[in-house]
Amino acid sequence: MICYLLANQAVIITHMNKYIDIGVNLTGSSFKKDVAKVIGRAQQVGVTQMIVTGTNLLHSEQAIQLTQHYDSICYATVGIHPHDASEYSSDTVSELRDMLQQNNVVAVGECGLDYNRNFSSRKEQIHAFEAQLELAIELQKPIFLHQRDAHDDLVSMIKSCRKDLDKVVAHCFTGNIEEVNDYMLLDMYVGITGWICDERRGQDLQQAVKHISLDRIMLETDAPYLLPRDLQQKPTAKNRNEPCFLPHIASAVAAHMQLDDDQLITAAYDNSQTFFGMNGLS
Ligand SMILES: [Zn+2]
What's the confidence (pLDDT) of residue 37? Predict the structure, then answer.
């Protein structure tokens, strides 16, 4: 909570909540010009750490570079998004394995299945996903999942190797109660974005979050995508989401889970630190 004494323009910070944005696409072209300012704005509102999403070899490498520039602020995931699954070759595994040994690389992903657009064929997606599941098992790294219109296939693939996997998160979850229940049965974490702020598309999700265990929820913006629809504040760049909007998303999630903001924010922060093993990192 921040108290503003407007009369003399003094600002007293009584207690600032801390947040970890577990999914930010900071390597995208829309952040090229002002990434330092974007990170600065996030820190000003208490977003102390950001997990930069790797979606293919190039973006994974760029995510690692950001972790070097912003040590102990930015962390990276490394993986091949289902859209890029057609690029997956036998060399890809060894490149990913090398990257996953680096400092501040905290998860395999994003990887998974996306049958909505099928930029890569289903067969290619399944092949690339299987290979990344094997890598996560081999290195005992957490896995950062993307799923769209492929819930049943994804669940059956996770189920078949769940006992061997370390921690698992369904990032940018937008589904319904049944889907969340499937994930809870698989002892998975769930990442919630500003999708929940959408009064039309977000209705299923608004009900589903009530079924997420408090020790399994995490928060993310998925910036620059999914700008919360009910945001009062104007984004710096038109329609571009930023990690500084995470507190707005947190309040919406807390309201739908019928929790105090502080309770949800503390839980999500602790869960994120545990999930990504950030306590022991620099
Ligand atoms: Zn995704």
Answer: 97
